[in-house]
Amino acid sequence: MRRTKILATVGPATDRVERLQRLIEAGADALRLNFSHGTDEEHRSLLRFAREAARRAGREIALVGDVQGPKIRIGELSGGSARLTRGMPWILDQRPEPGDLHRVGIQIPAIGRAARSGDPVLLGDGSVSLEVTRVRSDRLDTRVVNGGTVNSHAGLFLPRAHLRTSVLAEKDRHDAAVGVAEGIDYLALSFVRDADDLREARRWLDGRPNGAKVGLIAKIERAEALQGIDEILSVTDGLMVARGDLGIEVPLERLALEQKQLVRRANLAGKFAIVATQMLLSMVSSPRPTRAEATDVANAVLDGADAVMLSEESAVGQYPVEAVRWLDRIAQATESSFDARALRAADMGRDGESERAVAAAAVSLAEGVRARAIVTPTHSGRTARLVARLRPSCPVVAVSNLSATRRKLALVGGVVSLPAPTHRDLVELRTRAAELVARAGVGRAGPVVLTAGYPVEGRPTNLVTLVDGEGSRRGGVRRASARSRRSRPPDR
Length: 492
What we know:
Layout: E1 5-10, H1 17-26, E2 30-34, H2 40-57, E3 62-66, E4 81-84, E5 89-93, E6 103-105, E7 120-123, E8 128-135, E9 139-146, E10 148-151, E11 156-157, H3 170-181, E12 186-189, H4 195-206, E13 215-220, H5 223-227, H6 229-235, E14 238-242, H7 243-249, H8 255-269, E15 272-276, H9 291-303, E16 307-310, H10 312-315, H11 320-335, H12 341-348, H13 354-369, E17 373-377, H14 382-388, E18 396-400, H15 403-408, E19 415-419, H16 426-440, E20 448-452, E21 463-467, E22 477-478
Parallel strand pairs: 1-2, 1-16, 2-3, 3-12, 5-6, 12-13, 13-14, 14-15, 15-16, 17-18, 17-20, 18-19
Antiparallel strand pairs: 4-10, 5-9, 7-8, 7-11, 8-9, 20-21, 21-22
């Protein structure tokens, strides 16, 4: 069983139910819709097609709606692009007419306070750069430092500026409302700066019908987000290492190190981490990845990423299904070399509540007896995430009667979700544990480790027990940690 999840972006190359079904059957665990492109009707159709494709494939997959966020872009250019050469002047102003080789419009609040003389300005993927030579109240005069072709609506970055705008602009709220109405499982926030951005988005979601059910993914694209990453992790469900824009904001030579640190911090916090951007970019037009791309994917797996993401490869590429299959092959070939010992040792030194201790005890027991699987009944998915964060060598089988919970766990590495009714007592749950693992078709022969609340109904997870491989009622019960003294809903 592959433990690393695959998140595939949908688009023109995968805009039919049959095409999406093939993606899912090839191994995609979740599908992403980029709201930066397309119309409301196209967005609604793609989300509905995705649900139907998942139904036909017999899979519960997560749907991620990714909003554009407060990204600054240049305006329209006459002819669609402009070729800038080193040393030439270029004016950034707020006029609406199409730009040319002399000027271009940008929409930015308080443009005269956005930069200082000498500040760098990066365009597109950062390969074209400018330097501010003069700041005026209504424009920035710049000089081209590194030339190249710039397209209409290219992204514009001011690495030294600290512009405070809402993480959910008017377009983002509109797009997110479409996604929530169509049943997305996660909302991915672009250009998150700090935990307050996540709190703002959470308040907005909680105020909409069914919005409280939608999880949040913090896209880490700004250098300033790195400073407050621990607080960001405390209020998000997961993060995405969005290497495209992050690679412009931080020195390129440090990008791999930042990726590793972000994934590790997410692991320790019990939040899933997605590594994204150009994983298999050559497969937009090639049926086979480059050696460097295969190595990049393998390194993300070895870093401990819960999921790897396809962007253009599956949205507009010629080989979307083949790209998913290659991610599947590379991940499966690499996962056996992942060493979780350092992660578990680091976790041992952290203060935590009783449920974290129970999850750690479950993993320790599973490793000691070479368990076939760890079964975790769960209401919200919390217990499954706490167990999975320690990367046990056996699968984590999350059992829930809530389809929304099962879908959300599709992005958590190493977790397989199964539907099951609420169990009335521990004896019934122990009897069915091995049966559930067999139904999941995962794991090697051997005993099953089971976590539970005692008594089962209405309690947080406070118990670990061992069930033999045949599901009999023999096998000791290990009470792990004291029950939580705080009053809280079960398994939040």
